[in-house]
Input
Amino acid sequence: MDYRFLGNSGFRVPALSFGTGTFGGKGELFGSWGNTDVAEASRLIDICLDAGLTMFDTADVYSAGMAESILGAAIKGRRDKLLISTKATFRFDENDPNAVGSSRFHLLRTVDEQLKRLGTDYIDLFQLHGFDAKTPVEETLRTLDDLVRAGKIRYLGVSNFSGWHLMKSLATADRHGWTRYVANQTYYSLIGRDYEWELMPLGIDQGVGAVVWSPLGWGRLTGKIRRGQPRPEVSRLHAPADYGPPVDEEYLYTVVDALDRVAADTGKTVAQVALNWLLQRPTVSTVVIGARNEEQLKQNLGAVGWNLTAEQVALLDEASARTAVYPYWHQAGFGERNPSPV
Output
């Protein structure tokens, strides 16, 4: 397993991380993803560790805390063998007005609760799950800095921030000498390349590494979806309609056609090719993979240990390219002074 630095830090993480969204299966959304219990989670973690995949990503809202609890039970007695990445910000309790956001009150309480569920006294990477526009960034960053100084958190990151959200936070941290964000857990895939428009250049400039979520486009790039074929019966695409990025079908099929060509050339699966493409992109520190079972996990682990050729990357780039929104399409015409990050 290749290890990479997480942004502009001395912390090294595996090129692939394992996402625990399938742990627990509580609720309509997470129930559609999977319902892995402690025994199966332990087996999946064994496979990951044997392959050198040592970072496991979770969040407080995954199955209402069950994912963290299952992960904690599955790693009992071997905490020192792995890295834990978790997140918080989204509403955790519908009846508590303070069980949401990035306020000092919520962050201090929720981190303590997460540590208990995970069965540990520190979190390797803690990320804000979303931007909280109702809490001053100074309050949030001071609180996170206190948690780092207390030894409860080692590195900080964000998720689902816009460029100005992240840059404002970084500037504020620099101004006060508080701990900086070094990670951005972001959606990025061959059918979702918006990350490249602003967040990737920001990551290059500011030393923020990408932790990629949903690298297979919400299950669309697994090799199970092709022109004229019915959708698979078991898929996160059947989750509630409010979740997941919309994708034009013709665009999807064009990308899958290109993936099929490269898969045939390399002898790899469509999913492995899609993951390997991401691993060659600028700023990408780690790609979070998920799996309902051992077979899926082992297939995804096959995305490392080899690289696409420049010609294969170019083929996939061309098939997945889309016209950027303003001002990014305009900036692309000024490459002499504003070069593309890729």
